Please model this.
Amino acid sequence: ILGHIAWGGAHALGHDRIEGAAGIFNADPLRGGPLGQRVHLAAANLTRFNRALVIALGFRIRDVLARMATEGPSQVELDNAKQYLTGSYALRFDSSSKIAGQLFWVQMEDLGKAYITERNDLINAVTLDDMKRVAKRLLKPENLIVTIVGQPAKS
Model:
């Protein structure tokens, strides 16, 4: 839930865009770690961005993590995330390949057979205090490492 609030949907804290003349950066979560906290940066033709925008994006990611670590999410952010995560869950089962993927993931994560039917209840049981406690314990913006692959424009 915390990963979705920080990086997930269109209303997510980390969904702010840094726009340049050539395109837009978006930050999206990758699976992995307790919160999916590894962040993948998708850029529309990175080579056309100037270095200042690339550097600004790194600072924005750190700021998002710092805010989440110190303040945690708001009740509105938590409610929106729960609504999205529970409401969109069925879309993970709308094709044979997606069903197979979900079953494989549940097995690999050793979540048990009941996970698929209990998942939304587990998400809805999370409180704002839970989220703030987890954010404070797990998010460490001072440990952020930004790696840029490619050569941004010099201008």
User: Anything to note?
Assistant: The longest helix spans residues 51-71. The CA atoms of residues 106 and 112 lie 7 Å apart. The mean pLDDT is 75. The longest strand covers residues 24-29.
